[in-house]
User: Which sequence fits this backbone?
């Protein structure tokens, strides 16, 4: 297994390097290379003795790094490609490798590996494009406290997958823009016996080249952007995704989301709500904490939401505020401290300072409120502090 | 820290904040008067999804490539970059990349002149 993973890391990196050097020789093809790297130190004084090793339910405190390189190629006005290799918790991985074949603005075919259109955070998932060090909880991919108990967010971002998407955009003059997307991708997976949740790690290396079942997951998004003035606009969108995640195509998941983003000059307000319904395997009732209900006892709901705001204070300094949380309802494994109705709420305040054009410092403080006590410390409240830096080119 | 505190802190900053600040961009006052309106549109639209350092440091100097690049950005979901915005953004990027090219040529000429004069580059 480890050898397969190493091969996948190497293949992703090889693809990027090969594409880059081929394009350097083909001067007629326009290409652009961009990259970013974020180093973040997460200090959690209330979880001093916890560790983030596999099998525990704590957090990745201490230093973490997320880095990415992206190659964008415009072969012609109708054909473009993107290759992105990222490096993080999963090692090197092809986060994007797709082509866009566009007839008109309103009709584009995307094929390859990409994060399908869902929600508004998807476009800003790179740490260079969001001003807090970490992602909103519904999109968290391993940075949250007690991450193993919670199984990360509702839809950890990015969520690259292999498949095809038809999308497009239409402008109604300067006043409005409408976007749509519909896609079929491999979908999330869990190949373990008695699966009880999506296994997001299986969507990454070393397994992401092949599907675990023959049925694609499907989804769609619709969004409308309205401009009130030259410096004021608002976007509202709805998204949905449905698929099966086990090898036998028996267990379904459905994710729905709604988002709102308002921009008044440089002040940004954003809000999103996500809800996921996940069926689980009930063939072994002994693994659950509660007796299985004969009616609707084979699924759980995991919902999440965030609201955040960014406000420039002076030219190079932004003030940030965010409230996010998740609610999980339904049966749980007997081994977890979660109950049949568990929640977490986080409140954060932060600053982002642009030292120069390509280098930004980030800091934030956060207060966590869990409904369930930590079985080791007995705590419900936790405090975290982020110190980070992100550079781009 | 509760919601009311958080909201109060944010709105206090909004009231005392600097709504026209364009972080990580150029100083509009350092631009020629004729470029400021186009730059304002560029800064407003392009900073919606990413840092302005992305386009400003892209190193692109060819107008035809800028046209494809900006068209690709315009088609991003919720970009808010209308076709009339695209024209203004391209005008500014033409000015900016021309200035960058001139700066590189001036720097190269200085190095050559220094070497020709027998000095270290």
Assistant:
């Amino acid at each position: 297994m480890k050898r397969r993973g190493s091969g996948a890391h190497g293949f992703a990196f090889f693809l990027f390097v090969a594409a880059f050097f081929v394009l350097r020789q083909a001067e007629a093809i326009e290409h652009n290379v961009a990259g970013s790297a974020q180093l973040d130190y997460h200090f959690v004084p209330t979880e001093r003795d916890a560790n983030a090793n596999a099998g525990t339910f704590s957090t990745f405190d201490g230093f973490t790094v997320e880095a990415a390189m992206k190659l964008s190629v415009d072969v012609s006005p109708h054909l473009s490609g993107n290759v992105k290799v990222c490096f993080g918790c999963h090692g090197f991985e092809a986060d994007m490798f797709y082509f866009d074949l566009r007839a008109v603005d309103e009709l584009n075919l995307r094929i390859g590996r990409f994060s399908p259109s869902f929600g508004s955070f998807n476009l800003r998932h790179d740490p260079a494009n969001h001003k807090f060090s970490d992602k909103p909880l519904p999109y968290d991919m391993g940075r949250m406290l007690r991450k193993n108990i919670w199984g990360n967010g509702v839809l950890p971002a990015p969520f690259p997958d292999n498949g095809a998407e038809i999308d497009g955009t239409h402008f109604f003059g300067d006043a409005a823009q409408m976007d749509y997307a519909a896609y079929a991708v491999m979908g999330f997976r869990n190949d373990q016996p008695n699966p009880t949740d999506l296994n997001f790690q299986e969507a990454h290396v070393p397994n992401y080249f092949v599907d675990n079942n023959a049925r694609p997951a499907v989804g769609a998004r619709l969004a409308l952007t309205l401009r009130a003035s030259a410096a004021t606009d608002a976007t509202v969108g709805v998204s949905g995704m449905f698929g099966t995640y086990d090898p036998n195509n028996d267990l379904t998941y459905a994710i729905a989301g709604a988002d709102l983003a308002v921009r008044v000059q440089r002040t940004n307000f954003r809000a999103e709500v996500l809800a996921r319904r996940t069926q689980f395997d009930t063939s072994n009732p002994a693994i659950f904490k509660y007796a299985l209900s004969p009616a609707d006892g084979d699924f759980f709901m995991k919902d999440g939401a965030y609201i955040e705001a960014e406000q420039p204070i002076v030219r190079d300094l932004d003030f940030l505020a965010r409230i996010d949380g998740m609610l999980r309802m339904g049966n749980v494994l007997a081994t977890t401290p979660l109950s049949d109705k568990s929640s977490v709420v986080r409140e954060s305040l932060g600053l982002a300072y642009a030292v120069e054009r390509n280098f930004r410092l980030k800091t934030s403080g956060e207060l966590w409120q869990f409904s369930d006590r930590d079985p080791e410390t007995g705590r419900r409240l936790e405090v975290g502090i982020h110190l980070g830096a992100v550079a781009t080119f | 820290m509760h919601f009311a505190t958080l909201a109060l802190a944010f709105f206090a900053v909004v009231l005392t904040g600097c709504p026209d600040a364009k972080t990580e961009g150029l100083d509009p006052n350092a631009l020629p008067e004729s470029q400021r309106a186009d730059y304002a549109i560029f800064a407003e639209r392009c900073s919606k999804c990413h840092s302005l350092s992305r386009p400003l440091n892209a190193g692109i100097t060819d107008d035809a490539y800028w046209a494809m690049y900006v068209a690709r950005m315009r088609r991003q979901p919720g970009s808010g970059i209308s076709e009339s915005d695209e024209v203004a953004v391209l005008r500014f990027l033409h000015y900016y990349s021309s200035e960058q090219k001139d700066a590189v040529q001036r720097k190269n000429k200085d190095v050559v002149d220094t070497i020709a004069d027998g000095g270290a580059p």
Summary: The longest helix of chain A spans residues 2-25.
